[in-house]
Amino acid sequence: MRYPSLILDDVTRVHGSGETAVRALAGVSLDVMPGELVAVMGPSGSGKSTLLNLAGGLDKATSGRVVIEGEDLTKMTPKGIAQLRRQRVGFVFQDYNLIPSLTAAENVSLPLELDGERPRKARLLARQTLDLMDLRELADRFPDQMSGGQQQRVAIARALVGTRRLVLADEPTGALDTHTGEEVLRVLRERCDDGVAGLLVTHEARHAAWADRVVFLRDGVIVDSTGPAGSAEDLLDAAPA
Q: 149-189 pLDDT, tens per residue?
């Protein structure tokens, strides 16, 4: 029996208290299976980024459970959560977040080295991950020697290196042109097809159409969901008014 890589169980996140309290998420439940890419859509302020931060242990739920590969984050210490995040969760950000003074291979190997892996083995694993993504020729280049699309693909490699089986992507194509954005999503889709669980936050219907399932958020609540859309037009038709 397969189990979800990610479980959000009746998760609530409230910022502040009293009359100034803001409820960013209100009882959200969501599972992501290995090999599944789930897209999250919704207007600004709907709770998309909050959901992603909770899913990756970057923020703490006010109530409810967040479970990553069987580990309940609500029962773990901050140190334990940080270790789990380094080892099992990969983040892909809109602005890449590559370190300018490091080569592609060094950027990809950095999370492994921070987790105590020997530099030589970490660099070998980084190059192997770059090879899997057809980025071998970029291994020794610095970020300013790459295009935006190449930098984002390196960022995806960094999110996947080692034993990570859950990838969280926050508007990863927002700074890219249409063609390059589609190539980045193709890479993410292929990695999910290989067994990685993916959670993608996007405001673009044509990007969400790459997902196996689309979840619509509004005011911190899941208001609808759909299976494979088939096309961006189908997805737009399915989106709640």
A: 999 999 999 998 988 899 999 999 888 888 888 888 998 99
Domain total in the chain = 1
| pLDDT band per the 50, 70, 90 thresholds, residue 228 | low
Measured from the Cβ of residue 199, the count of other Cβ atoms closer than 10 Å reads 25
| Assigned domain for 203 exists | yes
pLDDT band at 216 (very low <50, low <70, confident <90, very high): very high
Tokens found for residue 241: 């008014």
Q: Which strand ranges, in their side-by-side order, compose the sheet holding 71-72?
A: 22-32, 6-15, 63-68, 71-72
Joined together, the tokens standing for residue 170 give 């926050």
**Residue 219 has which token pair?**
């005011």
Asked if 131 and 161 touch (Cβ cutoff 8 Å), the reply is no
Query: CA triplet 33, 39, 43: central angle to 5 degrees?
Result: 145
Mean pLDDT of 54-83: 94
What pLDDT, on a 0 to 100 scale, did the predictor assign at position 2?
Answer: 81
| Domain presence at residue 1 | no
Q: DSSP letter at 35?
A: T
> What is the DSSP pairing of strand 166-170 with strand 197-201?
parallel
CATH value at residue 80: 3.40.50.300
Is residue 180 a part of any domain in this protein? yes
- Residue numbers of the domain that contains 184: 6-238
Q: Is residue 185 exposed (0-12), middle (13-18) or buried (19+ Cβ within 10 Å)?
A: buried
Amino acid sitting at position 133? M
Q: 11 and 29 in contact (C-beta within 8 Å)?
A: yes
- Domain annotation covers residue 45: yes
